Automatic annotation (TrEMBL):
Domain of life: Eukaryota
Family that this chain belongs to: Belongs to the peptidase M14 family.
Biological process per Gene Ontology, one example term: proteolysis
GO molecular function: metallocarboxypeptidase activity; zinc ion binding
Name of the protein described by the UniProt record: CBPC1 carboxypeptidase
């Protein structure tokens, strides 16, 4: 669910670049070890590049601090949305709150 949320809200996130299989070369990564040895059902690794994007609104641009901060902020909003989806009764906040958060993120993380 979190990758789907991020694909809808974070312009630098690409669902098509996601891989959810456990490859032999990835068996010693923290994501796989946490899943296998501790039993965390949804353990993810988020990778970034400094070279640039090949899709979305950042296509052809080099990734900088603003884009990384925007991704971090969108990730936090995505976690909040995920929590609200999983426990709607615990989060009786108005849905407009997420819109306000997104507007704040957009205004503080503009690409110039």
């Amino acid at each position: 669910a979190l990758p789907k949320i991020l694909s809808q809200t974070a312009p630098a996130f690409c669902m098509g670049s996601c891989s959810f299989v456990v490859e032999k070369s990835k068996e010693s990564t923290a994501r796989v070890v946490v899943w296998r040895e501790i039993g965390v059902q949804r353990s993810y690794t988020m990778e970034s590049t400094l070279c640039g994007c090949d899709q979305g609104k950042y296509k052809g641009l080099q990734i900088g601090t603003r884009e990384l901060e925007e991704m971090g902020a969108k990730f936090c909003v995505g976690l909040l949305r995920l929590k609200r989806m999983a426990s709607p009764l615990e989060f009786n906040l108005p849905s407009s709150l997420l819109d306000i958060e997104n507007e704040l993120i957009e205004s503080s993380c503009k690409v110039t």
